[in-house]
Structure formats: structure tokens, C-alpha cells
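Components:
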Amino acid sequence: MGLLKKLLAAFILLPGMAMAAEGGYPLDHAPDFTQNLADLQNGARLFVNYCLNCHSAASMRYSKLKDLGLTEAQIKDNLLFASDKVGSMMTVAMSPEDAKTWFGAPPPDLSVIARAMASDAGSGPDWLYTYLRTFYRDDTRPTGWNNLVFPNVGMPHVLWELQGVRDARFEDVKDPHEPGRVERKFAGFRQVTPGTMTEIEYDKSVADLVSFLTWMSEPARAERKRVGVWVLLFLAVCVVLTWRLNASYWKEVK
Amino acid sequence: MAFTEKQLAADAPFRERALNWIDARFPFTATWRAHAAAYYVPKNFNFLYVFGSLALLVLAIQIVTGIFLVMHYKPDASLAFASVEYIMRDVPWGWLIRYMHSTGASAFFIVVYIHMLRGLLYGSYRRPRELVWLFGVCIFLCLMAEAFFGYLLPWGQMSYWGAQVIVNLFGAIPFIGPDLSLWIRGDYVVSDATLNRFFAFHVIAIPLVLIGLVVAHIVALHEVGSGNPDGVEIKETVDARGIPLDGIPFHPYYTVHDIFVATIFLTLFAAVVFFAPQMGGYFLEYNNFIPANPLKTPPHIAPVWYFTPFYSILRATTSDFMRWLQAGVAAYVALLVLRTRLGRKTKIAVAVVGLLLIVGMSTLDAKFWGVVLMGTSVMIMFILPWLDRSPVKSIRYRPGWHKYVYLVFGLAFIVLGYLGVQPPTPWGAVVAQCCAFLYFGFFLLMPWWSAMGRCKPVPERVVFRAH
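Structure:
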């Protein structure tokens, strides 16, 4: 292989090598259901039922869920467990001190988590979507659970009833770049007990939940884009007008 | 002298009488004429000359959006992060104000970097515009301070650790360093006290100085008159009334011109604000959506993109690099002593300073020299007007190979910026060190290279093609 070809190959492989060097589990692409109100409502239901016991979303008001097409009565009857005012914030009763004792670290606030988890490896939703689908049974952990995206995470698999119990197989693979070094590589999940959902149903539910988290991280996003179209159209007209105004003055400059 | 007011006819129109009343008490018409209607500007400006007024526009955007943000923002370590999210969700149009301000910060640097590049290419810093340039460099310094202080305010992880890293840099200064950084922070770590003082600097102190400097920059410019891409002084060719033949009044010609460009700029600006406010993590960094946590250092701390060329120079200054720096200093001192006509005393002073630097580089920590180099990389712009020895101002009439010198300098700056956003690697450090040499070489060797080569003849009048 010529030098040029080698260089070219190095450049093509470079991004892949950088990813491999980080050692993270590759992220799946999260389907985006943020345009679909029914999916977002389902995501909100899952969020309030499964996440909002330990995680807060302290920047989020229950009443904001009206933007998802829910009425105040629907929010009160179905989603409001911790408070009686729809205007209140999505806080939790668990104190950070207790959380630290129970889980090793206080569960982070989820208001903007979908924006915070973005990295070179993938978008924030990609991270969340993969994370919530890669829990496995691990008896060496205090909670009995472990995760591929976030190894040794303090959080147990809260959605296990839906997904069922799985464990993970690992194989020892020799490192091709470093003789003598053996790497523990993930080699697939094994379903131990079935969940209430099939794998397809579970993935869809997680996608709904992640879409809700994405919506919640910036509730103004849809409005921003809607307004933006009009602003750009207005400015485009302005550009034409000011262009002609400028030309009408400058034609007399010789 | 007694107060006199021009007597107008009793039936003069109201507008005329009102203006007369004001002009007797305030130089309204005189100021308008001096700075707009009778301020003569070369007619051959190209598009690079619009970035000054665009910078003014962005400054206005930042001040107005900033005022509205302060109405809802809480400069308190326990409330700051949540108050920004409150602005994004509960304040009507708060998201728009916040995105305009965060996008405006990056836009400001884009505009100002192009504005400075323009100055570099067309010799805008040359006599008689040295003070215009010096005020400009002061504005740039203020802008960096403003951006740095402002970046702490959202109180995210990157805000917090960025401030921690930069304030710790002062700790590298011998003897006074640790106390100095303690004094800046007001605490042993970045904390509520730091947030409060940074807030004060960001919303009051620096903007005041900034506006004063902008006024000085424009007054100094209008005193000597604008340069142009041909580097021809239009005041040297005037008509019978003393008006430059190649000059046109700023108003209306350049006001309509600037309004046109402003609408184009605002279109691009709005495209970012409404459709990509995070700009892929460059305008709003992902990590900054995690609240500041003094106990958890992020794995990779990088300043926002506009600081990275200078940050890269800081990071490139490792202890392995010191001997190269010493060689560089020695070579430069030798050049100054052997190949210049400086006075004997000056040469001795240069040699002593050079020797002190070389000894210092062996004894003091490399981190300290990194801070020195980073500071120097900005400060060196102050002496630019006295480094350039080219007989012509504009790159248009300079020797062709000068373009490549500017190109290499520009590339070095961009590569430094790129490396600054990446996590450090051994190869990256070597490339950054080479680029740092190119960056400083461009300035320090300018007295020699700018005088070399054959310039093309500069025309008597500006080159202008009617639109």
C-alpha cells in the first residue's frame, strides 16, 4: 500500500478510532416522537410514574403539560401525585442526603437532562434511549443492576417490570493492539424472565419517554422554530427592500 | 461671551425653530454633520468594512437583551442555574432573549475577528490611525473579559470549571499568585462570592468601560478619517471646498449600506437563534446544562470557541517546550543585537531582558510561562502599528508573497483554535507549539519581513467601479 493510501486510510479510520478509544458502548439512534402529542403524553405518563419518584424536574411545572394537549383536569386526575396545584414544580420529596445514602449519589434533576447528555458519541436523546435499554442483572452491584452505557450506575432498573429481567454475557477478547491484555467485551443479553412488554413495545415506550424528556428540556423548541420561519421570511423581505434602497442611493456615486 | 440665539423669522416652520433652539444650547447639528452628514468616507469600501458597524449592532443587541435577562436572572449560587431555566420556560419570550444573548456573544467575536482581520490586511492600524487601533485592542480585551465573566453566570459545569481553571492561572505568577487568585475569587474555590463579583463586572464595570472605549474608538477614527482597501489617504486629494474627491458623506450612503448589511447579518443571526441556538455545542456547551458541582470535575474542560486560539497557546507551553522557547528568545535577541541599528544602550537592555527570560524559563514553572505567553499573544497586538515597516498600507500593493505570510498566520490561528476545543493529545501539543511559533513569529519578525520584497505602485486615487 502506498504512503498516500495509508494516510487516506488513517484519515478515514480516525473518527472510528477516536470513538473506540473512549471505550463507551456505542449509542443507538433515538427515534424522535417530539412532534406527536399522543407519544409525548405517553412519555409524560411514564415519566411521572417511573422517574418522578426519585428524580425531580424542578424547572418544570405540571401546568406546562397543557402544551401537550392535556387539560388541567386530566393533569390533576392522572399525573399529579405529589402536589395538589397544577402550577407547582415537579419536585420530589426525597432529600439529597437520603438519596446519597441509598444510591451513592443524588439522582440528577431531569429538567434539561436531554440537552446535558449530548457528547461526541451522540445526542442527549441517543444517550438516554440507549441507557434505558441496556440495564442487566448484576449481583455484584448493591442494587442488583448494572448498565452498559453507564457502568456501575447507582440507579436500579426502574422499568424492569416492563422489560423483564435480562442478564448480560461477556467474553474475554485479546486486545489486538496490546499483546497480553485481555478485554471484557459485551456479547449480548439473555432474557431471564419476560416483562409485561415485548421488546418492540418496550423500545417504543422508552422512545416515548425520551421524546418527552427531550420536549421537557426545551418546551419552547416547537414555538421557536414556528416563530423562526416568520422572522426569517420578514427579514428576507427586509433584505430585498434595504438592498434596493442601498442601490438607489449608490447608483449616483460615480 | 453672552448667550446668543440666531433670530429666525416669526413665520419660520416649527421644525426649524426647534432645531435652532436646540443648536443654541447643544451642538446637535454640528455633531450630526461632523459624524454623519459631512463625515467623508472613501467610496471604495469592500464588504470587509461593514464589520465595524455590525459590531456596534451586536453590542446594542447584547446590552438590550442583557438588561432584560438581568430582570429575571438571580446572581446566587443556589438560584442561578434554575433562574436561567426559569427565563427559558416561564418568562414570556425569555427563551428568545436568552438565545439572542448567548448567540450574540459568539456573533460578537465572529464580527470582531473579521473586523480585526480587515485592519490587518489593509493596514488600518498604520499612521495616522495608531490610536484607533489601540482603542480597538482595548475593546477586544474588554470583550474577552466581558465574555469570561458572563460565562460563569449560567452556573453550569463548564461555567464553573472554566472559571476555576482561568482564575487558577493567576496562581502561577511567582510570589503573589496564590493570594492573587484567592483575591479574585473571594473564596478558596469558585463560589457564590465569585459569582456575585463576576456578575457586577459583567453587567456594570466592563460594559461601562466598553462603551467608553467604543466612543473613543469612533471619535479617534472620525478625527483622522477612515482608511480604505487601497491604503490611499483620501484627504490628500480634495476639491475647492476641501472635500475629498474620493469621499462620500457617511449619511446617507454608508447608512443605507450598513442597514442593508445589517439585515443580512440579522437573517443569519436569526437562523442560528431560532434553528440552531446551541450550534452543535459550540455556542452553548452541552456540559453547561449540568448545574455546577464543585466536587465533580468534568473530564474535558474547554473554553468557548472564541478563546481557544489563546488557550491553545497556554496549553502548548509544556516543560518540554521550554528549551525551544529559550532557543527562540536567544535567536530573537541575537537578531535584535546583530541585525538592527538600535542604540548601544537599547541593545544591552535587550540582551539583559533576553538573558533574564532564558534563566527564568529554566527556573520558573512552565505553567507560569504559559500564562505569560497567552497574555502576550493578545497584548502583542498593541505594538502592531510600530512593527509594520512596509512602505504601503494595503495588502493589494504589497509583494505577492506577503499574502502567503498572512495566510500562514491565519491558518496557525485557526489550527490553534481547533486544537483548543479538542482534548489534549501529544501530537496536538506539537502542532500547537509549531503554530504558537508561527503566531509570534508573524508579529516579532514583522519589522523584517514587512520591509522585504517589491511593492506595487500605489495609485494616486482610490480604485472604484460604480455599482
